[in-house]
Amino acid sequence: MLAKIEITGKITLKTGMHIGASDAFAAIGAIDSPVARDPVTALPYIPGSSLKGKMRSLLAKAYNEKTRIKTRDEDDERIKRLFGCSKNAEGYPQPSRVIFSDAILSNQKELEAQGVAMPTEAKEENTISPLTAVANPRQIERVVRGSEFPLSIIYNAMDMETVKEDFQLLADGFRLLQYDYLGGHGSRGYGRIQISDLDVCCVIGDIQDELLEQYSEIIRTVENEL
Length: 226
Description:
By secondary structure, the chain is of the alpha+beta class. Helix content is 25%, strand content 26%. A 4-stranded antiparallel beta sheet has the order 3-7-1-8.
């Protein structure tokens, strides 16, 4: 390992977002599908696994030559190099170069100042049986629009010759994510996000300032998209 580079920024919800938690022990009358919450603060959060998985999935659709693959080992080599796989081109496990941190809601006080009593809302949904026309109502919990979450990704610079290409891949992932959605029920308008305040900093090791500026410029192009 040559160095560790931290990518920071802010995720802002443009529409309500639902990243589900277990409802196996929900009480009668409780929301049918609650959101994931931090067990310490009870605030909604975006699991790092959700962010990483969604970004990889979108990049796979954009970069893979095959439209259907059986395992992630068939992903484009650039994706496997960045996100990891169980078997690379040489037949060996490929560790991920990126570490996605969980992101806990960071602007609860600002939301309260705007008159938002709770950081989540109960969204009424209905499914209609095409055979009987019987409605099946349910409540889905969503994190309210305007909520903000701190973005933090650690990139392990294993090979300096491929860092720039990896950052281009990350920028493409951010760009795709802004035009897609995070969490569930995206086709109904849930989970639209905006990524801003992106910055790049070398936290371990030594990387030339000129190179860091190049990486920053690549990442910051995302902010001009929306």
